[in-house]
Design goal:
This protein is mainly α. The chain is built from 14 helices and two strands; from the N terminus they run ααααααααααββαααα.
Length: 333
């Protein structure tokens, strides 16, 4: 049945806004590692930087948490999962990883998330996946081998790679939880979910990071970005306001306007943005094989995510759980 003319502009406009928000989220998330690494190198523990990021963002979002306090009784599981996985888990693993390996490499490892999801769906749930999605997984894994230069005998720090892989595992839950209930009549407000996710994440990280042992004097000084001094509080402000509050809000809202897989494909740009920023601002140059491998990883992630069938189509799953397709964000951290 033809769509009424009066509805078409709103649909097209809504999709355009969604794509714009997804792109803004990718840019905001992509700058987090570049701002955080100088603080870590200046003397802050990675967990302390994560705590500052999440606790600061939680304070900014506190009014929204009060406004949506009804979510605590209606969707406690969703809020707990978002706080533990999409906030605390991703951020802690990612920041710990970039303290040991380059920012670009850590993000590219995170883009194994589509492969992890598909492997779980195929071998644990024993559900079929599309051939295109399987090809995407093979490309992503092969590209990762080039990124870490396996022929050099695992050139990068093994613990750093494992931490980045942990971030990928937690990242799988980001878009899943962001999309939870989006088709329901009383879908939870995404801003409320983010606000409580940050509060829960901050509470968990307070116990783990023990901020009372942090060297607070570092924040009063400066940190170096490839030899250029930058005020530490400026970097922290960027991490809290842009790379966390704006990044999460635009990311989750874009999923609601688009879909997990479409927003995830746009989110692939996060790795490109982060790698370029790390190259320019931190002097973290990648070799030609690593760049080629990164392109292959992103191509594989793109294929794996964009090949997901529409909900309710009955076709083989490209990535997802029993009720919906899963996708991975560009959310890092």
């Amino acid at each position: 049945m033809p769509v009424p003319t009066s509805v078409r502009p709103r649909n097209h406009s809504g999709r355009g806004v969604g794509l714009g928000l997804a792109l803004l989220s990718a840019v905001a998330f992509g700058g987090s590692g570049v701002a955080a690494k100088p603080l870590i190198e200046a003397g802050l523990d990675p967990l302390h930087v994560v705590w500052l990021r999440v606790a600061g963002a939680a304070l900014v979002m506190l009014p929204l948490a009060v406004r949506h306090r009804g979510l605590l009784s209606r969707r406690p599981g969703l809020l707990a999962g978002f706080g533990l996985l999409a906030v605390a888990g991703v951020q802690a693993c990612y920041f710990a990883a970039i303290s040991r390996i380059p920012v670009g490499v850590a993000l590219l490892v995170e883009y194994l998330a589509p492969a992890l999801v598909l492997g779980w769906v195929r071998f644990v749930q024993r559900r079929p996946v599309t051939r295109a999605a399987a090809v995407g997984v093979v490309l992503a894994v092969g590209g990762l081998a080039c990124v870490v230069e396996v022929w050099s005998g695992l050139r990068f720090d093994l613990l750093g790679l494992l931490l980045a892989l942990g971030a990928a595992c937690c990242q799988v839950g980001y878009f899943v939880l962001s999309d939870q209930g989006s088709d329901a009549e009383e879908a939870p407000d995404p801003l409320g979910v983010i606000a409580y996710g940050l509060l829960i994440g901050a509470s968990v990280l307070t116990v783990v990071a023990r901020p009372w042992s942090m060297d607070w004097s570092v924040l009063a000084g400066s940190a170096e970005m490839d030899g250029t001094p930058v005020a530490a509080f400026v970097l922290l402000g960027w991490i809290v306001l842009v790379a966390t509050v704006i990044a999460y809000v635009t990311g989750v809202v874009s999923v609601r306007r688009l879909s997990p897989q479409v927003a995830g494909v746009v989110g692939c740009l996060e790795a490109v943005i982060a790698t370029v920023l790390a190259w320019v601002l931190l002097g973290e140059h990648l070799s030609a094989p690593q760049i080629a491998g990164g392109v292959v990883v992103l191509t594989g992630a793109f294929i794996a995510q964009s090949s997901a069938p529409a909900k309710g189509s009955g076709k083989p799953v490209a990535a997802g759980g029993p009720e919906r397709e899963l996708s991975t964000p560009g959310t890092t951290a």
